[in-house]
Amino acid sequence: MRPLPLIFAVTAFALLAQEHAAPATKAKARATTPASETHGPPATTDAPENPGSALAELSAGNARFIAGKRTRTIDTAHDAAMRAALTSGQAPFAVVITCSDSRVPDALLFDQEAGRLFTIREAGNAPDLQGIASAEYAAEHLGSKLVVVMGHTSCGAVKALREANGKPLPGNLWALQAGMAGLLESTPQDPNEDGKAYGARLEEVNARRQAQVLLDRSSLLHDLAATEKVWIVPALYNLASGKVQFFKPVSAVPTPKSHH
Question: For residue 126, is it within any domain?
Fold first, then answer.
């Protein structure tokens, strides 16, 4: 009867060895599983091919964000594979020019993972020369089909401009005023309009104006928009609801060809 403890010990050791070997076996099986059978990050081939489909993709992503059903920005298990894939280059389908406000996380609210959005952040969503050049680069060299100029509710930049009422802001904030020059003059407050409603109207008007300014200051983007290779779309993000309201693309008339 004495050999029994030895038998039990050998059996227990064998079971323990199998238990520790199982994860390694499973890991090996996962490693050899064909890519088509895994749920990895979306392939780059699903990028929108034209401005209309690009806008539809952003709208669909925003709907997922509002519903709490994001899909593209929660797959953290494949972050390493995504980073590796993006080392060879980028092809963002859309440019988002938005405010620097920390409450406007464009990638999340459009539910788009790295490599799909080319983001330019400027206070008051008012792109300076560097911002305009960045948008041109994305459209001309990276193939972006859409430029969204997105303001948001409760914008501190718009509020600062309004409260300054024409007086110079301190430090380098004069540049903020310059970027939104003409907003107050072109959008006077209605006598029957309360302050909150007026502020909301200024935020929308600013987004529309900045989209037009982008078109006016960039001949490259103007020509792309005139041929509808790129849409420039003003938009407004609501902090409370999470919804992005898209407005009509700004129109561009083709530049007449010069005759020599």
Answer: yes
Per-residue pLDDT at 15: 39
**Looking at residue 59, which CATH number applies to its domain?**
3.40.1050.10
| Secondary structure E strands in the chain | 94-98, 117-121, 146-152, 231-237, 244-246
Domain that holds residue 101: 41-246
The total of structural domains in the chain comes to 1
pLDDT digits (tens, 9 = 90+) for 170-187: 999 999 999 999 999 999
172 and 121 in contact (C-beta within 8 Å)? no
- Strand pairing report for 94-98 and 244-246: unpaired
How far is residue 210's CA from residue 96's CA, in Å, rounded to a whole number? Answer: 12
Residue 137: Cβ within 10 Å count: 14
Long-range pairs of 155-159 with CB within 8 A, sequence gap ≥ 24: 155/99, 155/101, 155/124, 155/203, 155/206, 156/101, 156/123, 157/99, 157/123, 157/124, 157/126, 158/124, 158/183, 158/199, 158/202, 158/203, 158/206, 159/199
Domain assignment present for 120? yes
What pTM was computed for the model?
Answer: 0.81
CA atoms 225, 145, 102, 153: torsion sign: positive
76 lies in a domain?
yes
